[in-house]
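If it is no trouble, might I ask you for a protein's amino acid sequence along with its backbone structure tokens?
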Amino acid sequence: MAGKKLIECVPNFSEGRDMKVIKQITDEIEKIEGVQLLDVDPGKATNRTVVTFVGPPEAVIEAAYQAIKKASEVIDMSKHSGEHPRMGATDVCPLIPISNVSMDEVVEYAKKLGEKAGSTLDIPFYLYESAATHPDRKNLATVRAGEYEGLPKKLKDPHWKPDYGPSSFNPKTGATAIGARDFLVAYNVNLNTTSVRRANSVAFDVREKGRVKREGGKLNSKIIRDEAGEPLRVPGKLKSVKAIGWFIEEYNLAQISMNLTNISITSLHEAFEACRASATNKGMRVTGSELVGLVPKKVLVDAGKYFLAKQERSLGVSEEELIHIAIKSLGLDELGPFDPKKKVIEYLLEGDNQNLLVDKNLTAFANETASESPAPGGGSIAAYLGALGVSLGTMVANLSSHKRGWDDRWEEFSQVAEEGQELKDKLLYLVDADTAAFNAIIDAVRMPKASPSEKAARAEAMESATKNAIEVPLDVMRTSYACFSMLAQMADSGNPNSVSDAGVGALCCKSAVHGAYLNVKINCKDLDDKKYVKTVLAEADDILKKAIKEEKAILKVVEGKL
């Protein structure tokens, strides 16, 4: 999907108990070519299902239309009840930019969906957030005010004429809000109370709009108003956060239910910590939390780093460990198992790819390399050598960060370990990129060449594939060489008990550079673009010379300490 325009759609349907009804809706989504259904998250207490799918814009618009249409046929709002605010069978249908698409473009797609659905379905549609046609329709809570029960009166008000569709009330379908917005995280924090009133007191503390100001700050005292008679408010602690308290019978506990509308302003862990502090101050305890729908990987990685930093532990650990720390620290598994492979959007987009070399165990990787297949070859092995080398340096940094007596230096070594993790991940990616580059050459070789046009297309494909097969090992050289700086630092000032590991890391990275160099040279032989070849070989020769020098310097330090 790289390079393609991708948008995400997260419709919320007012049915969370009858899975047969939900499946009829999601079946319509899965029928559309190019669309990938990522998540279906039903809630019994809310009687609401959050569905997430992603794909090219036109395909997503068609899938959203078909889902709205099917929901209008299989959901009867006149019989609906649930804890969550709602106004329609398809309550909301937000579109979110994911890749290579601007918010302005997504707004146009939201309008296109509204126009198509409004002209063919007997449903009133309102645009909200970035797609809003009026300032007072930007906020979803305002659009949905009065909920389903208030629609008959609302639709008679000229000010609330729908953006698309009829102004008449359809008791079966209600109304739908279509939006264009940034990534929103729906997040609930669990409390050790069943009191909605007390959960709301925490929600009012943390949400951006805060609470109404009252005389003496007491709950039931007189509201303080401005000159126009409007209630004054005490702002909450967190920007870009909406929150209410509610009781979930299914779990027999109260929650603070939040929408984090801009995770670059207020992160998941900041919202959790604000709720924890408020609850503690009111004699309650946060026992865990719950993610509704999907999240970007960064949300959990950042949370893991935050909680490790609070422990004064190195942040330079694997992505898997960071996410594990986040899950445990936030209590995301309190109400049920939490599988990041099913909740993190990037993992779902990756799919179930069993062909990656880096996903094999050591024996399978060695056996694959030793087989009669020409790939994986020296390029992939060079990249893996580099990954092993920098992993050793990262290990030394982590051991140094946790060394008894060096507590005041944990941040210094943590920064080195984080750098090492980034380099390791890049080199692991290049393991499979090298094999993919080789396979692309084979595909080009097999292209037909009977006609002049076929010959030209084949020649162009061959040149492009060969240049890529040069660029990948050249990138291995650059990345492996970048590892020497941290390895030299760890050999010189890292945990002295692990100095030999820094030395082995240097040996691996130098071999990675040299091995990748051989791949650059052999692939350059097959290219006619001599100017390109000259430039590439000049850079490769320079990196190799510097790598040999760096390796010798590090080994000299290591030998001196043994």
User: Anything to note?
Assistant: The chain has three domains: 6-180, 185-350, 357-561. The chain has a mean pLDDT of 94. The first helix runs from residue 19 to 30.
